[in-house]
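Structure tokens please, single chain.
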Amino acid sequence: MTRINKYLSLCGVTSRRGAEQLITRGKVTVNDKTIDQVGTIIDETKDIIKVNGTVVTPVVKKYYILLNKPKGVLTTLHDPFRRKTVAHFLRKAPARVYPVGRLDVDTEGVLILTNDGDMAYRLAHPKYQIPKVYEAMVKGIFRDDDAASIAGGIKLDDGHIGKGTTKLLSVRNNTSCVEITLNEGHKHEVKQLLKAVGHPVMALRRVSFAGLRAETLRVGRWRFINYHEIRHLKDLVGL
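Here you go.
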């Protein structure tokens, strides 16, 4: 017995959050009956689960991909307004994989995609404190007291307290390049933290997620995550 959103993630259909959206939109049936409760419990040994009329079953082979996401691209596999999504860059991927967490449309850099539901869920969950490193080009001269404020914690729009560690990389023409590391990750958190200390973000790039980097990848290209990297990710989240 398992919750329907977890089952759909194990089938490689989408993340658990994405599964909840499919359910509320009436796209999921159990034994040909449409469900609307995200907490529905199913018996995976007996029940027939369909998404958009197609039977789904747990994936047999798991894939782990690292994409160097370009800015101007949505971190989703489908957009009703036909804007460019990360799916555009994954046409040659061997299976359907979905993003772990999100990058804003105007942010580029490291994005992990997989059809491993448990891995995706844990990597995205604040409980596991997965480090995410960004480089931000900001207005003004970033100073030590700005770094201290961000380290001490700043209230975000969603009510959470956001905090991170920062390092000044360079200063030029009244702009600063700042490295910032987060261990949770809330919506627009980097932008909110830096704006709160008087340094609006002009450009943002994620350079590392859970220690994985995209230094050898051109923007818009992807590669398979290797065995040692997968083992590292599993160790981080207790799998």
